[in-house]
Design goal:
This protein is of the alpha+beta class. The protein has helices spanning about 5-15, 20-25, 45-55, and strands at about 25-35, 45, 60-70, 75-85, 85-95, 100-110. It contains three helices and six strands.
Length: about 110
């Protein structure tokens, strides 16, 4: 089973290289990405929408991972994220089914 860092690195690679193939291999068939930010253009993305977004340039990097929970069915922690004209620290948690991300949620950490 992939670790939390491997899932996060798959997102990071997509953002950095504009190649989502590594991320694609780790997403379940019914995957959804939820962003609870009040300014999110698309608060819930489908699997295909997430793959398109990951290479769009809207988010350019994630870093400073702090994994607080990493099991076969749930990962959680914090990381920073940035785009061309924004940056944020977020709390993330995700559910995993058969080694594939099923639901991924990010919540901005108030500053």
């Amino acid at each position: 089973m992939p670790s939390a860092i491997e899932y996060l690195d798959a997102f990071k690679t997509s953002f950095n290289t504009k190649d989502a193939s590594r991320l694609d291999a780790l997403l379940g068939e019914n995957f959804t990405f939820r962003n609870s930010s009040k300014t999110a253009e698309e608060p819930i993305r489908s699997r295909s929408g997430t793959l398109e977004w990951a290479v769009s340039g809207d988010c350019t990097d994630i870093s400073n991972y702090n994994v607080i929970h990493d099991t076969a069915d749930i990962i959680a922690g914090t990381h920073s994220a940035e785009g061309p004209d924004w940056s944020a620290d977020v709390f993330f948690f995700a559910t995993i089914i058969n080694g594939k991300l099923d639901k991924y949620n990010v919540h901005p950490i108030p500053t």
